[in-house]
Write a structure and sequence with these properties.
Mean pLDDT: 78
Radius of gyration: 15 Å
Strand order of the largest sheet: 3-2-5-6
Number of helices: 3
Shape: flat
Structural class: alpha+beta
Strand content: 25-35%
Number of strands: 6
Largest sheet: 4 strands, antiparallel
Order of helices and strands: EEHEEEEHH
């Protein structure tokens, strides 16, 4: 799964995506490997930041983001995955989110209920 952070403040040097979802834990991984993904790349595609290695997604879950600036400032974000996807696609498609995306998000929400 690729995670995207659309709001990438200028000067960010590192971003950590985290979850506390117990379904992310696997026997062959350390706790930090199972629960966080560190990204140190600069923004791509219209200011997006991508984490190419993240979690297998079986449904909606809580996601946290911590960012570090070069001057010791930080930022944090938290959201349910589906809420973040909803916000992302509404911003990406202001005239209306394509049904394939709304249906995929609805399926993720239903999987965890």
């Amino acid at each position: 799964m690729s995670l995207s952070l659309q709001v990438y403040p200028p000067g960010t040097r590192q971003v950590v995506f985290l979850t506390d979802d117990p379904d992310s834990l696997e026997e062959d991984e350390s706790l930090q490997e199972a629960l966080c993904t560190v990204v140190r790349d600069m923004p791509q595609q219209r200011g997006h930041l991508f984490a190419d290695e993240a979690w297998d997604i079986d449904g909606d879950f809580k996601l946290y983001v911590v960012g570090v600036f070069g001057d010791d400032r930080t930022f944090t974000l938290s959201s349910m995955l589906c809420d973040g996807l909803d916000a992302h696609y509404r911003a990406e498609f202001p005239a209306g989110v394509p049904k394939r995306f709304t249906q995929a998000i609805a399926d993720l929400r239903d999987t965890r209920d």
